[in-house]
Specification:
The chain has a single domain, classed as RelE-like (YaeB-like fold, 2-Layer Sandwich). The two termini are 22 Å apart. A hairpin with a 7-residue loop joins strand 2 and strand 3. By secondary structure, the protein is of the alpha+beta class. It contains 3 helices and 5 strands, in the order E-H-H-E-E-E-E-H. The chain has a 5-stranded mixed sheet.
Length: 125
Amino acid sequence: MARPRAEGETELFWIGSSYRDLLAFPERVKDRVGTALGAAQFGGKHPAAKPWKGEGSGVLEIVEDHAGDTYRAIYTVKYEKAVYVLHAFQKKSPKGVKTARTDVELVHKRLQAAREHYESNFEGN
């Protein structure tokens, strides 16, 4: 049974494998991402959240370093009634700080899926 939503809280949706991928992260990283997503659900912005380049406003990322590895969670707050987690991954780009093209393309594809989900489930309601 789903718990009732609190006043001002938006629904949280996981696109594709993002939930399963996040569960594979170290506990400390999962806690930080979870805290940031909780803030987003209530209309806030976690201090560690920063804009994800390339998809315009409303797409954010949490970057967390742990034991020499870097983890990222990308989510969107573009929609009034929903927060969508688009991608969660361990950064493995061979070119320093640049994010792998496959990850960038996956975020774009999942953002489109989030838009379609929102339009079919929330608009006009």
